[in-house]
Amino acid sequence: KMYAEVCGIGLTGDAYHITAPPPGGAGAVRSMREALRDANVQPEEIDYINAHGTSTPYNDVSETKAIKSVFDNHAYELVVSSTKSMTGHLLGAAGGVEAIATVMAIKENKIPPTINLTNPDPECDLNYSPLNATNKEVNYAISNTFGFGGHNASILFKKSEE
After folding, report:
1. What is the pLDDT of residues 48-106, one digit of tens each?
2. Residue 125 falls in which region: left (phi positive, over 0), alpha (psi -120 to 50) or beta
3. Domain ranges of the chain
């Protein structure tokens, strides 16, 4: 049985720094916008984002700014979570495992939590599904994976009609 389909991808490289993203998240912005364009999906249709979410000040603030830039006011309506809060950073396996978690969120209409999120940075003011899973219908979701050296990938999944 098919749970979801890949309907859009965005791949960018910003080469800003070996480990730090650009402060405004320019590469992440381009990556998410490209995935939306590739899928022919409007930002308001996205229900969930599985964030790269490394729990570092540079990454989390930059990714939050990128999400706000792409989704504008809708950023406050969608749910964002980081499965790295439960798995740790799996390095080369992170994108694959997080894509699976995103597909399962679509299948189950249950968004995984960001565990241990008790004191978020004031600049990280979105709904990060803190501590507990969020029950919500998920028809479209994005999984973000941003690697060392400025590699950025956003995969947009759509609930399967099968």
Report:
1. 999 998 888 888 999 999 999 999 999 999 999 999 898 988 888 899 999 999 999 99
2. alpha
3. 4-159
Tokens describing residue 146: 């941003």
Phi, psi angle pair for 125, to nearest 5°: -115, 25
> Rounded to an integer, what distance in angstroms lies between the CA atom of residue 82 and that of residue 160?
23
Residues constituting the chain: 162
In this structure, which topology does domain 4-159 adopt according to CATH? Peroxisomal Thiolase; Chain A, domain 1 (3.40.47)
Enumerate the β-bridge partners of residue 127. 79
What gap in Å lies between CA 113 and CA 53, rounded to an integer? 12
Output the six-digit token pair for 79. Answer: 């749910």
The pLDDT of residue 57 is: 81
**DSSP readout, 83-139?**
THHHH---GGGHHHHHHHHHHHHHHHTEEPPBTT-SS--TT--SB--BSS-EE---S
In angstroms, how far is CA 65 from the centroid of its own chain?
A: 12
